[in-house]
Write a structure and sequence with these properties.
The chain has 364 residues and is mostly helical. It has helices at residues 4-17, 22-41, 50-60, 77-83, 89-111, 117-126, 131-134, 138-155, 159-169, 196-212, 216-228, 246-268, 275-291, 297-314, 321-343, 349-352.
């Protein structure tokens, strides 16, 4: 974080002050993602899973894994085959990072409001479900790349191709199968996701789970998945449910405000290219409101958060300024609050001081 925070500050400020100059803005966006590429490509030991993946890489190369601090945990066969394509671990990390940066750049360049590039970059760098998580959860980062590609087919009405790509992605991380649920937006012909009934259902359920101190649906769903999907049993120690704390209730109320904002803006957005895009954004904030950070929801949000952020960048043109300010303030506030919690964990020490592959005696 000693490098990421100042780097993020420079990038966001540069894009903010270039927002009224289209040529300078496009250049600043390209340079911003170039800087992110360099940050991720040359990193060493950044994040708690860096050494775990290093152990896995060495194990499939027939090397001794006891020289690292990772646990050498097992992963999906597809990801092992993918790793075998690379001659060394550094090249694997670099290539995997570039895939995420390039697809994120493409998503931002094609769909985001140029005047709000600064906001998109702020969230991509500091929301805990984006850069810091993608740099650690390398399998899930690859699934996110495939989800963005799959979305393009969904947006063209090719639902079967979308499902095929998601199923293919599950060979790299089994939790990607949960993304098949996003395909439901294709069948939402009557716009249930933007209806009052949907909003009342999600908001009411989210707040009720806090007041009860337990999310019954969440517990049933998690127990079912952990009992029937062997590959997901590694996550059985994830904390589930919610507490009836003031913080949890405030989190739900802020998320509810954002959901109302996104739903209201989606109703006013007449651009047909964004029908599915905006509905995915609705599903993203709904998952955050209803499930919080439990039940592998962070895995889903890794793929969905970029869509929420990019969609939000387009909404100020449709919505009142006060409502926009409050919603953006809440979204940014939630992101930094969750990031602060993440950085307070014992494993987060590997995030605090950035090192490059040039700081060590040899390149992995």
């Amino acid at each position: 974080m000693n490098v990421l925070i100042p780097l993020g500050f420079i990038i966001v400020v540069a894009c903010f002050f270039c927002r009224n100059n289209k040529k300078a803005l496009n250049t600043s966006l390209f340079l911003a993602f170039l800087a992110l590429s360099l940050f991720l490509v040359f990193r060493f030991g950044f994040g708690p899973d860096y050494y775990n993946y290093w152990d896995i890489f060495d194990s499939i190369q027939g090397k001794d894994v006891d020289t690292h601090t990772g646990n050498g945990s097992t992963v999906e066969v597809g990801f092992l085959k993918y790793m075998q394509l690379f001659p060394n671990y550094t090249l694997f990390v670099a290539f995997n990072s570039l895939l995420w940066v390039i697809t994120s750049y493409w998503l931002c360049r094609k769909y985001a409001n140029p005047n709000m590039y600064w906001f998109v970059l702020l969230m991509l760098m500091f929301d805990p479900n984006t850069l810091t998580h993608h740099s650690v959860a390398m399998r899930q980062a690859l699934c996110c790349v495939l989800f963005i590609i799959a979305f393009e087919f969904l947006n063209r009405g090719k639902i079967l191709v979308f499902c095929a790509i998601i199923i293919f992605a599950s060979n790299f991380h089994t939790s990607a199968l949960l993304l098949l649920l996003i395909g439901l937006v294709y069948y939402d012909k009557k716009d249930f996701l933007t209806s009052k009934a949907y909003v009342y259902l999600i908001v009411g359920s989210g707040i009720l789970s806090v007041l009860l101190g337990e999310n019954i649906v969440l517990n049933i769903l998690q127990n079912f998945l952990l009992s029937n999907v062997e590959e997901l049993q590694r996550y059985q120690d994830y904390e589930i449910g919610t507490t009836s704390s003031i913080t949890a209730l405030l989190f739900r109320l802020m998320s509810a405000t954002i959901l109302l904002y996104v739903v209201s803006a989606t109703k006013k957005d007449t651009d047909r290219r964004y029908v599915y895009f905006n509905k995915i954004a609705i599903m993203a904030i709904s998952i955050q409101l209803f499930f919080g950070q439990a039940l592998l929801s962070d895995r889903l949000l890794m793929s969905l958060t970029p869509f929420l952020v990019v969609a939000m960048s387009r909404f100020p043109r449709y919505m009142p300024k006060v409502f926009t300010f409050i919603s953006f303030f809440f979204l940014i506030g939630i992101a930094f609050y969750l990031l602060s919690i993440k950085m307070g964990k014992a494993y987060a020490v590997s995030y605090l001081e950035y090192c490059t592959i040039f700081d060590i005696p040899y390149i992995p």
